[in-house]
Specification:
The complex is a heterotrimer. Chain A is mostly helical. Helices cover 64% and strands 1% of the residues of chain A. Chain A is built from 16 helices and two strands. The longest helix of chain A has 32 residues. Chain B starts with 5 loop residues before the first helix and ends with a strand. Chain B contains three helices and ten strands; from the N terminus they run H-H-E-E-E-H-E-E-E-E-E-E-E. Chain B is elongated and about 90 Å long. In chain B, 26% of the residues lie in helices and 25% in strands. The mean pLDDT of chain B is 93. In chain B, 22% of the residues are buried. Chain B is α+β, with helices and mostly antiparallel strands. Chain C is mainly alpha-helical. Chain C has a domain of 174 residues: Cytochrome c-like domain (Cytochrome Bc1 Complex, Chain D, domain 2, Orthogonal Bundle), CATH 1.10.760. Chain C is 42% helix and 5% strand. Chain C has nine helices and four strands, in the order H-H-H-E-E-H-H-H-H-E-E-H-H. In chain C, a hairpin with a 5-residue loop joins strand 1 and strand 2. The radius of gyration of chain C is 27 Å and the shape is globular. The N and C termini of chain C lie far apart (61 Å). Classes of the chains: A mainly alpha, B alpha+beta, C mainly alpha.
Chain lengths: 408, 175, 279
Amino acid sequence: MSGNSTYQPQSKVLQWFEKRLPIGGLIHSSFVAYPTPRNLNYWWTFGGILTMMLGIQIITGIVLAMHYTPHVDLAFKSVEAIMRDVNYGWLLRYTHANGAAMFFFAVYIHMFRGIYYGSYKEPREVLWILGVIIYLLMMATGFMGYVLVWGQMSFWAATVITNLFSAIPGVGDTIVTWLWGGYAVGNPTLNRFFSLHYLLPFVIAGVVVLHIWALHVAGQNNPAGIEPKSEKDTVPFTPYATVKDGFFMACFLILFAWFIFYVPNFLGHPDNYIPANPAVTPAEIVPEWYYLPFYAILRSIPDKLIGVLALFGSILILAFLPWLDTSKVRSGRYRPLFKQFFWLWVIACIGLGWLGSKPPEGIYVILSRLFTLYYFAFFLIVLPLLGFFEKTKPLPNSISESVLGAKA
Amino acid sequence: MTTVSSAEHTRRDFLYIATGAVGAVGAAAALVPLISQMNPDASTIAAGAPVEIDLTPIAEGQIVKVFWRSKPIFISHRTKKEIDEAKNVAVDSLKDPEPDSARVKSGHDQWLVVIGICTHLGCIPLAHQGEYDGWFCPCHGSQYDSAGRIRKGPAPKNLPLPPYKFVSDTKIQIG
Amino acid sequence: MTNKRTIIALAAAGLVAGLVAGTAAPAAAQEHQVPPPAMKWSFAGPFGKYDEAQLQRGFKIYKEVCSSCHSMDLLSIGSLADAGGPGFTAAQAAAIAATYKIADLDDKGQPIERAGRPADHFPAPFPNAAAAAAANGVAPPDMSTLAKARGYQRGFPTFLFDIVTQYQEAGPDYIHAILNGYKEAPKGFTVPAGGHYNEYFPGHVIAMPQPLADGQVTYDDGSPQTLAQYSKDVTAFLMWAAEPKLVQRKRTGFQVMIFLILLSGLLYFTKKKVWSAVH
């Protein structure tokens, strides 16, 4: 989205239009001529995959809303009517439900990639923070969408998550009542969740535009972590990046389709096929898998308020990453020590995810505490200190040298 | 990239076109469920199954309204006078010419069954009103006669007939 | 030096104390559950289909046995004739519907009972959940989604292999096991009043008395009239009730997979061609 474009349409009509609204030039400079580093690997295709997933979720969501009824007596029935009666309803609903999981799967890879290659570092801090905001919005949207089904897990997830706010000293209970619109999770809660679940994806789309804008101002980071210096270091976005993104999107769709058509309920919980019952709590309350690491952090701390603060802190800390990492070298490729700590951190995240699904007792609690401790230590101790002590490997002179050097 | 044979070119173009075509087919196929979902669903279709109506409680001169597929259906038990009026009109003079015999089932002259939706803009006409012993539409003043035919006003067509049949002399099945 | 050591020791002790605090909670919260035996289901796997004759037998069991306590109110009676289901004809489904009495209102607004139509849903045996609970001790669960609402913990790493093997039959396996799981309680195990011992039920005490036994339901197609056969048939029927579009889903899935593999292949070669210029 850079300023002056050399784009000049051939048709007279388009030239006339372009003079008055240079949208063709904007698209051309952003998605055709836009120079991308030539050494991008497949981890860089997840930005495009995420855009596709947002599109799929919005389209299937709008369609599902045509058949869904946000009322406590009818929500579960209307979802089942979608599955049984609506033409292709089963396909639309399974796509939307598994699409949420795939969206999070892709965003986690996108985030791990950003952290490994130091994509948050100067001059891409704002780009990174916009990404953290998108992630927060995704979590809120995903949670509220899960509640709409109004099964047992929906209802009790809504109860547990809204109760997090009761930890706020003094005003906690007032805030929770305000969130519910009643004295417990009920019809007003379901109605407002539906309203917000419909709104937030469009807010996400807006922040995504800002995210891409910021990306096109700073330019893409790349596996070498050094800026392009000459034309030899870059290739035009189209066709190079488009076809590469397209290929990996198709591969991603194979995985996605596998879940939709063959194991559509693998990622769900059986209890959510039981209609919500405010009088009976299920034997175990487990959030969707993509929230499990944070759920494990919450439960690892015996104090309610500190637990909730740790939960929110574990997400918000990501926004401060550009300043917590003191290293001058961007890419993890040239940081031997960072690499080890990074993979340990990935293990901690996955470990926390596993522990989040386990009952909070015995060895599970001890492991949760160890991993939580390391999760925060990685940001607050390892990254700030590493910049001073780590002996980094020499950087290549240019991107093209790093590509050719790797080949030689 | 220094020398590219024309055969190489053709092969490359074919690959690009094939990829684009397959992608376009996929995009089009993805539209099918998105469009199809707006059609009536299975429960709506099931609820639109034929309904049976017992005619015995309908007195001569009475018009009742029943519903089939969410549409009002008028069942008129016509009097001798209404039948004669309907038969004695010069068919050519009508806006939508149809003889009375085309409006009822033969042998069941006293029973008129029509869809009660004005052919002008979809309002429900009022029974036993207007100048023709039939229906009067309050929205824009269309008037129908005792055979449900348009006689006056902006409506272009006669009241449509639903698909129905006599199961017995006193019972019809609509749909 | 000593000071420094003391500080480190104290910090370490504090850390350990913090980690252990609160972990002494009772670890017996999770009842041990006996994993149900894995059955062979016609609807499992990428090309799985329902066995029409089996679903018809299962429906007979549902109608003669289950439906006296369990509702199944998300299903329309006419769906028995839907593609991919038990394979009843529309006329058969209408005849089945007519055997049910449906509460309705007459022209004068008075409550009446009329013969069922295909669009009607299966009527519930009790007017509401409270009445069902009062009559049975515990309200028998609705059967519309039951086969998807039950399951059991697969454990690590089995649950990961399930993605590849497409194992989605934890619900049917569990229901089948429950129907076969009624046994004498082992010595020393006291079954509370109103409960029944079942090997596969979590906690082993189930409120439902044994619902099926050999010879209870008469089959018209010569299939064995045994509990082993009944339990398989009714479980398959419940899976269909919970997932009536399974056959369409798997068939569409195969077409989508073929298409996506073709598209990915073409895109791969296109990508190679495009990038050959810069490599």
